[in-house]
Amino acid sequence: MKKLTEERQLIVKGLADFAKASLEPIAYDDDRNARFPKEIIKKIADKDFFGFTIPKEFGGYEADFASVTDMAEEFGRVSASAAAIAMTHLVMAEQTILKYGTDEQKKKYLPDMVKGNKLGGYAYVEPGASLASGENKVVAAKNGSSYTLTGKKTFVANGGAADLYVVVAQTNEAEGLKGLSAFIVEAADVKVTKNVDKLGLRSFPTAELEFNNTKAQLLGAENDGLKIAKEIQARVDIAFAAIGVGIAKTALEESVKHSKTRVQFGFPISKIPAVQWMLAEMADDLHILNILTDKAVACVDSGEDYLMESTYLKMFAKKATFEIGTNAVQVHGGTGYSREANIERYFRDLRGLFNLEGINEYPQKIIAGNLLK
Asked: What is the pLDDT, as a whole number, of residue 263?
């Protein structure tokens, strides 16, 4: 692992202290009640955490992407839902507007987003079919220099809670996926038709949205939507892998502690070889996941192409997080399966990190396509 600079050490400590003080006390009840923790948005912003990677001219704090994934990890250690809310806002919405927005769009939205006055969301997946193919696909109609959207999106990240959304819609139906574009849509102009109740990440709001001649502002160039969506997905996959690192660290720590204090047959279960093996497998998966995450983050910060690095990370993370969560429950036995403890929440949240997109985003397809091109 890389040795952290003094500045990054201070950032990590600030993130960890904030998570412990503001996120951990509400995480259990928010999960049980599937409650969106609206009050934390302003608290996160007041610490300048939503300003990471955003230029000072928009009120940001020009930290690198590593600081974003530090936030994902430290928040993930106590509340994966809060981490997912923050990553959706900062990575999927803020960073996309920063890179592809016009000067007017950036001045209009970024300062309020950095301050926590406006929460960002992301709408990509469409109900009942793959993107740009079903009867509910979101299609953009152009009238002069303006656009309107019609159709539906589901599993919208920060859906129903956001003040604005980055939306991927079709501007050229004949071109299929190559005819997609990205837009900014304000929440006041869209209808929330359903909140999606989930197995994990329960206080991370996801919803179905309906667009009915909804006003939209183009982000970037027309028909560049697929490229933009791939960049968004790659960055957020790295961020969500970092959330997985955070959850896994806590799950491993609690599993080691439990194995030393849980006594069966007259001795701690840490003496049982099968338990030792499960702990070793958890530690091994976590170690590799941490290394791969750091490598992908370094690609982003160095300006290298990070799309394939993110894909390899995602493929490993999907398997590793499942195994870590499963072993944590197994080590804890009945306690791990009980909803009175946190272990089952860690398992559910780990399963949800990479299961909210469409099948087109499966990493095997992308890796194989790269190998066979």
From this structure: 84
Contact 319, 350 (CB under 8 A): no
Q: Does 231 share its domain with 351?
A: yes
Q: Which residues are catalytic?
A: 357
Q: What is the pTM of this model?
A: 0.95
Q: Are 150 and 165 in contact (CB under 8 A)?
A: no
Question: Among 109, 197, 199, 121, which residue's Cα sits nearest to residue 159?
Answer: 121
What's the CATH number where 186 sits? 2.40.110.10
Closest C-alpha among 185, 186, 183 to residue 228: 183
**Residue 1: inside a domain:** no
* Segments of the chain scoring below 50 in pLDDT: 359-360
Give the pLDDT confidence score for residue 41 in this predicted structure.
Answer: 97
173: left (phi over 0), alpha (psi -120 to 50) or beta: alpha
Do residues 206 and 84 make contact, with C-beta atoms less than 8 angstroms apart? no
Pairing mode, if any, of strands 164-170 and 180-186?
antiparallel
Going by C-alpha positions, the residue among 34, 27, 26 that lies closest to residue 205 is: 34
Among 74, 95, 118, the domain-final residue is 118
Q: Tokens 């183009």 belong to which residue?
A: 218
What are the angstrom distances between the C-alpha of 18 and each of 95, 117, 348? 23, 19, 24
Q: Is 181:169 a contact under the CB 8 Å cutoff?
A: yes
Of the three residues 175, 202, 224, the one that is the final residue of a domain is 224
Query: What local confidence, expressed as pLDDT, does residue 357 receive?
Result: 63
Q: Which amino acid is at 349?
A: D
